[in-house]
Amino acid sequence: MDNHDIAIALTRDSAPDLDSVLGMKFPCLDDGFVRVIDYLGSDSSIVQAARISYGAGTRAVHEDRGLIRYLLRHRHTTPFEMCEIKLHVRVPMDTWRQWIRHRTANVNEYSTRYSVAIDAAQRTGADEWRLQSAANRQGSSGTIDRETGTVLSQREIQLQHLAREVYDERLKLGVSREQARKDLPLSTYTEAYWKVDLWNLMHFLQVRMDTHAQAEIREYAGIIGHEIVAKWVPIAWQAFLDYHFNGLHLSSGEVAVVASLLTGDFVGARKQAAQMGWLDVNPDSNQLRRNRERDEFLEKLADRFSFPVNWLSE
Amino acid sequence: MDNHDIAIALTRDSAPDLDSVLGMKFPCLDDGFVRVIDYLGSDSSIVQAARISYGAGTRAVHEDRGLIRYLLRHRHTTPFEMCEIKLHVRVPMDTWRQWIRHRTANVNEYSTRYSVAIDAAQRTGADEWRLQSAANRQGSSGTIDRETGTVLSQREIQLQHLAREVYDERLKLGVSREQARKDLPLSTYTEAYWKVDLWNLMHFLQVRMDTHAQAEIREYAGIIGHEIVAKWVPIAWQAFLDYHFNGLHLSSGEVAVVASLLTGDFVGARKQAAQMGWLDVNPDSNQLRRNRERDEFLEKLADRFSFPVNWLSE
Amino acid sequence: MDNHDIAIALTRDSAPDLDSVLGMKFPCLDDGFVRVIDYLGSDSSIVQAARISYGAGTRAVHEDRGLIRYLLRHRHTTPFEMCEIKLHVRVPMDTWRQWIRHRTANVNEYSTRYSVAIDAAQRTGADEWRLQSAANRQGSSGTIDRETGTVLSQREIQLQHLAREVYDERLKLGVSREQARKDLPLSTYTEAYWKVDLWNLMHFLQVRMDTHAQAEIREYAGIIGHEIVAKWVPIAWQAFLDYHFNGLHLSSGEVAVVASLLTGDFVGARKQAAQMGWLDVNPDSNQLRRNRERDEFLEKLADRFSFPVNWLSE
Amino acid sequence: MDNHDIAIALTRDSAPDLDSVLGMKFPCLDDGFVRVIDYLGSDSSIVQAARISYGAGTRAVHEDRGLIRYLLRHRHTTPFEMCEIKLHVRVPMDTWRQWIRHRTANVNEYSTRYSVAIDAAQRTGADEWRLQSAANRQGSSGTIDRETGTVLSQREIQLQHLAREVYDERLKLGVSREQARKDLPLSTYTEAYWKVDLWNLMHFLQVRMDTHAQAEIREYAGIIGHEIVAKWVPIAWQAFLDYHFNGLHLSSGEVAVVASLLTGDFVGARKQAAQMGWLDVNPDSNQLRRNRERDEFLEKLADRFSFPVNWLSE
User: Fold this and answer.
1) Which residues of chain C make contact with A103, given a CB cutoff of 8 A?
2) Whole-model pTM?
3) How many angstroms separate the CA of residue A261 from the nearest CA in chain C?
4) pLDDT value of position C1
């Protein structure tokens, strides 16, 4: 923190692996892409920013990897905000509607008021139609048979053709672009520059790489994560996977149940569960009442701890 | 700022004129609306917040109206941020795409992943088709003749019908809602709760009530301003109109030209204009070069100051 | 979602338990306080906001408590952002420096440019001097003996007196308030209006009620949580305690170890731990290398799961 | 917008003039500084971002300078947000308290919980003590005589010495750093990394380079503007000076008065003024009532338009 070295020349921080793909289009969906335009910072800038907080004294104590992992584990967000990336994306408007809900980012989108709309709409292949999930009201599960899928895809083409025909017709008759676009299908591609700091990007990836995210945006998020962030800040990326993306959150009640299970105390575990109302029985059916939190916990036990439990039979 | 009155009972601030329209739908476009769900604060909370900054001493000096106008004139934004409003809006997705770009707000939108899309799309009447503006690449100007408009409206209905037919077909065949929606037209209505503080709302209104805003969002903004904000914080609303919305911004060069014009010094005004490159002549045509800033200034002079100037002839 | 009931009169949402303490000062530290000025929304507005997303159809399925807990568990943040609260706080500038780092809030602070600084500085009692923690570089642990504490408190009074004397002297000699304040101690009280939405407030409480937070801000956070939020949105508050504040986060590696421990597979657990480098031995000392992540995990096991493990001896 | 050139190699945008001062400390106050750590983008990235909005077609129409000036003039903020800069600053805590109020920025500050406080406090020279302004309650005007100033500076040193002595004493007796710091004077230096996008930086400069800003932060803002931003984005910087910093805002009423004055219609101007209440007379004194808005307008006329007006005598 001495103040006497007036002229320390600096060179800009860079991430050589990311430099090697700068500007390159990573294809997404049938006609979309993601490409990196520019960035600011790297793994070492995270460390550097943390050290302004901790002072020079820490330089010897931590090595970079350990420090980055510590910061992420404890959600010390500010050093990650010191990195910034600017992407150029091409994405269907339907997907963009979800994307744009992440507010802490800077955006320049292609203007269909100013210019003619991009002449491309996302097409769905005959075997890509996903069935409504029964379990999850806002999800899908499995795909529709190819035969039905073929019909659906043909109808889609018919609709997209008509929509573009009507759009072109309007422009030809002199209708303003801002109004002509009003009936374009949500599948129409748009393009944007999207600039975001690393912390907010990791939050985006946490939500959008998740299995509950819609397949389309999940494809973009996966590419941004695995192809871009992994090259940009490899240490932070690994820490993100270990602590956040593949981590697990337990409520206080779930902790109590696991604590009992660890010592094999199933009676204690049931007692805890009962206190939370997980074992309430419907007197009519003599079955456990539906309880979403219990069901989610049983899923965690089975899927993440490989420790399936049958509450009724024990 | 004394600290001894431990128990000052407070009652919540309210705006009686706004209370009288709480929950009421103000219709917009053919099937949209805006309604107020709740709010926090009023004109007097702006004053109260300013006084925490200035201390008790100012209570005698300013009266409320003067203080609010002073704060707004000098862009002291924080007291205005102390007021918050929550609206329920029904709006075509195309308009919503513009709306959502205002990031400093809280949003809950109707989910077409979770629920079937609202069965309504914004229709354009035969005499509502706007012509592309020649002067402004992102605007419209005038309307299309009724005959052509009738054809355009029929085609719109045809397209919207097919789009809904295809959507319903997909749902019937079991396609997930999240995917079935992908080709809905942008004109499809959506609904949302939108919560925003007064300062950011005034910024929204400044941009979206402007004559350059697209007609559709301008209709919503006008209603929010004139029907809602005017009832909620009447003093702040009037100040907003006087200082911001109907105010005028001049660049340093424009100030210099106006200064010369005020004393009738046309030679000086021309000299200033020349220095800024406004009088550069195209040697081929012997006409003034196109200069957007000069043209905008001439517009200000003519439209706002009623003082048209002909640069060449003087 | 029908659009025909043009005139649904609404009354504003209120939280009666919070109304009963509106304006009341909850004392903090020796001369600080927190009081509620106003608020927007309640538990039922969280539900209402969620339902705009999910559509009317869900009304029968969930009851409010279950829905709020579900939303919080899954970090669906937007319905919580639909609630807003405005507090009036009196707090030492030192504490305020930490407070203000939470950026997503609206603030009006008492201005010592405009008014004479509040004539009160936070005093530390003879038995309130906290020792530097050896384990945690940014924490404290235990208190200093009363005798030494008495000396420290006397010196504090001496310093605070001189600081105020010098401040008053400057004002008397005509020095501007903006400059006279420059050497006020950080312990000087300031006041502010602070307005924040419920989601961001819960984040503030998560960080500032934590045992790692500094005692002073922790006192404020505790009061805001237990005395204010608990009265305002009791269901959301309980969910916050259960899922966030008293919840536990495990990394993917920690999950793997716990999974092994659940089945009594200590060999597997050690293998997992070894893969993460937790069992690396320092050849010189023949002891385990220092590993912060392992130590934190052992703490979780012992403190949260009551399942202490000794890695070396097994 | 064609999508076929999968592999366009990009090199990162740079600003050579800024590169030449990267890391260099620009001294501020007696012991502070500002230095650039890194940045993203340049004048040409503003253009590039605007063009994603406008489409490829515009490339021929505008040249860069004209486009940047157009964007700034019309407050099209998003292309400016596409540039980002990261500064390292050393600044008294008193100044930092004002700085940090700009919320849309990323910050890592030196932690006095974690490390011993920087052993430097801002000193005021004998001829640097500013007098309280009579006209502006939150400003200063002129300086105190050197003799008095000498006494004030001596007292300052005495206070700062005692404060540090007490601080060191506490640390020596084992008091935790987080508590020991509580009585440090606000003049104590702190350091921080501060990262901000160009639009928000220009807003910071607009407010903090202003003559109403406190001298200390104005010194920092001036250096950031004239030494850093001017080198980084010279075209945007000039546009900022022309349109924002040296621009002038007129209310609708002021526009009406100027319009009358332009045609020499003093009767009309007085009529406009009277309608706004600017000419209300106090019956007791037979003088014009105090009216802040009128006084501010007269200042604009005199200072910016060199057109002083005496309302009473005409």
Assistant:
1) none
2) 0.95
3) 7
4) 40
Contact list in A for residue B95 (CB cut-off 8 A) is none
Helix axes B215-223 and B198-208, enclosed angle (nearest 10): 140
Distance CA C116, CA D100 (A): 22
Q: What is the pLDDT, as a whole number, of residue D228?
A: 98
Q: Would you mind telling me the total number of residues written for chain A in this entry?
A: 314
In whole numbers, what is the pLDDT of chain C averaged over residues?
92
**Tens of pLDDT along C285-314?**
988 998 999 999 999 999 999 999 877 554
B44, burial (CB in 10 Å: exposed 0-12, middle 13-18, buried 19+): middle
The C-alpha of B8 sits at a distance from chain C's nearest C-alpha, in angstroms, of 5
pLDDT in tens, D19-70: 999 999 999 999 999 999 999 999 999 999 998 887 654 454 447 899 999 9
Contacts of B53 in chain C (CB under 8 A): 108-111, 114
Chain C: closest CA distance from residue A269 (Å): 12
Return the SS3 of B194.
Answer: strand
Cα A122 from Cα A100, distance rounded (Å) = 18
Between positions 292 and 311 of B, the ones with CB within 8 A of D are 292-293, 296, 304-307
CB-based contact (8 Å) between A246 and chain C? Answer: yes
**For B182-228, what is each residue's pLDDT tens digit?**
999 999 999 999 999 999 999 999 999 999 999 999 999 999 999 99
Which of C45, A21, D86 has its CA nearest to residue B193?
A: C45
Contact C247 A247 (CB under 8 A): no
Distances (CA, A) of A152 to A140, B168, B175, B180, C276: 16, 12, 10, 10, 49
Q: Please give the structure tokens belonging to residue C20.
A: 């009963």
Do residues D262 and B269 make contact, with C-beta atoms less than 8 angstroms apart?
no
Catalytic residue flag (residue B208): yes
- Helices and strands of chain B, counted as H and E runs: 14, 10
Calpha distance C293→C254 (Å, rounded): 10
Residues from chain C that touch B52, judged by Cβ atoms under 8 A, are 88, 108-110, 191-193
Question: D86-137, pLDDT tens digit by residue?
Answer: 999 999 999 999 999 999 999 999 999 999 999 999 999 999 999 999 888 8
Prediction ipTM score:
0.93
Q: Which of D208, D218, D290, D304 is catalytic?
A: D208
Say whether B186 and A93 touch across the interface (CB within 8 A).
yes
The answer for B 190-209 residues in CB contact with C (under 8 A) is: 191-193, 195, 197
At A138 the pLDDT is 86
Question: How distant is the Cα of B174 from the closest Cα of chain A, in angstroms?
Answer: 5
pLDDT of residue C248: 97
pLDDT confidence tier of residue B53, bands split at 50, 70 and 90: confident
Whether C183 contacts chain D with CB within 8 A: yes
Distances A65 to A93, C56, C251, C279, D252 between C-alpha atoms, Å: 39, 50, 16, 18, 59
pLDDT above 90 coverage of chain B, percent: 85
The two three-digit tokens of residue B126, written as one number = 């035969």
Q: Are A180 and A171 in contact (CB under 8 A)?
A: yes
Report CA-CA distances (Å) from A136 to A132, A312, B113, C287, D146: 8, 24, 10, 50, 77
D140 touches chain C (CB under 8 A): yes
Do the beta carbons of residue A9 and residue D23 sit within 8 Å?
A: yes
- Residues of chain C contacting B13 with CB distance shorter than 8 Å: 38
CB pairs under 8 A between A and C: 88
Give residues 65 to 94 of A whose Cβ lies within 8 Å of D: 78-79, 81-82, 84, 86, 88, 90
State pLDDT tens for residues A174-184.
Answer: 999 999 999 99
> pLDDT by residue (tens digit) across A246-285?
999 999 999 999 999 999 999 999 999 999 999 999 999 9
